[in-house]
Amino acid sequence: MSSPQSRDIPLPPLSGGMLIAAGLILAAANFVAVLDTTIANVSVPTIAGALGASSSQGTNVITSYSVAEAITVPLTGWLANRFGTVRVFITSLIMFGVCSALCGMATSLSMLVVFRVFQGFAGGPLMPLSQTLLLQIFPKEKAAMAIGMWSMTTLLGPVVGPVLGGLICDWMHWGYIFYINVPVTLFCGYFGWRLLKRYDTPLVRLPIDRVGIALLIVWVGSLQILLDEGKDADWFASSEICVLGIVAAIGFAAFMIWELTERHPAVDLRVFRHRGFSASVITIVLAFGAFFGTAVLTPLWLQNNMGYTATWSGCAVAMTGILAVASAPLAAALSSKIDGRWLVFFGVMWLGVVTLVRTYANTDMPFWSIAFPLLLQGVGLPFFFVPLTGLALSSVDEAETASAAGLMSFCRTFSGAIATALVNTSWEDKTKYARAELSGLVDKAGHYASRLTNVGWSVDQAKGQISNLAQSQAVMLATNQLFMVVGFCFVFAAVAVWFAPKPTRIADTSQAH
Q1: Which one, of 231, 221, 172, 234, lies nearest residue 43 by Cα?
Q2: Is the pLDDT score of 256 beyond 80?
Q3: Per-residue pLDDT, 4
Q4: % helix, strand, coil for the chain, step of 5
Q5: Which one of 45, 210, 359, 451 is separated from 201 by 20 to 30 angstroms, measured CA to CA?
């Protein structure tokens, strides 16, 4: 790969067919990176069993990837400035494929965890840099369409991941969870370099902020491990979790102080002084966290309580993507004509209203009663995600665009991790509470038990049936309560966007990371 050189005149745009091919390559690269954040979640028991480990030990497969990815995402801007945008992107993409192959070939859990760490390091830059290059190669009049394309892969990855992981584990060897990345990444890496190498950016030899990077690794790693293992360790009842919490808090405080006073920080936190950017980040943290929470909760509810297989729960959840893809071109077109705050408000509020409608779910619902609200939910996704990126980046100085985009990606990624931990813990706690309440109310007079024993059931069978009924309804109550909480999170996120002032310019996001 030749070193990128500074350019005095803009490069001619790619032709129509080559532009579409480059767009598809970048979208595919982003999709596999997002997909791998969730595809292993439902596969942990299968992987752990195959490698002779317990399920609790198997969660390290998820934790190791999440920690490594969370560390490299905010460093993407610095890496791209120092080594070149295209060079970092293609190297990350190829290394992601190589590490995926090594993960599939692992013969022990410790070996798999090590390869997952390297896979996470490689995957971190793919999300922000795929967005950067899309905006760099597409003409400005088509920039909104490029963001829409990128946004759909970001939003659909968490939905498809658990479903695809479950299907692979049901019908194939678990290694194919990782092998499926290999042909995509190698193909996209080879043709991506041939198409995009002329767009590589000039190098900026900034000093390495070793202290900032070290503090970032400490607090992000501690917090991510705390979130991943907190539920199984009973949170702060565990001394290990308490230590992780203290380390994360001290590390975060030290990181903030250092980065705000360092002349060449690895992560430029000064962009938060812009009210529009801060409001946009609050909106995306609340809204994406809420969306990710429902993406985690819905398959769990359908498979654990409604008796759905991985295939059928996947069909229900995948409904979200149908109208999301269909409405993306409209959202992209309107984002260049209408105040982005109105579009974001509509999209996020739509998601909130549909989620609140889902609070009336019951255990007797047929498939389409579950799937139809998910289908409608897809309408709001492009209106939330596409204009919000432009709104955030138009609020900062043009020289700060790279840092702002990297921080947005980091906050979005971390909000998903926090939402996953909160949803899993809250769902279990609310189910236990509802079960305790229902136990004293179900068949209090014993009429139902008497009917069962009269038709030939034993007393133990009758008690078991009543217990199962109470558990099923407890899960349903807990699910509806969480849908209500998530719905109001969307509403708060929709309101938060109005704290951003009206943008005075259209963001030039071609250098965003």
Answers
A1: 172
A2: yes
A3: 43
A4: 80, 0, 20
A5: 210
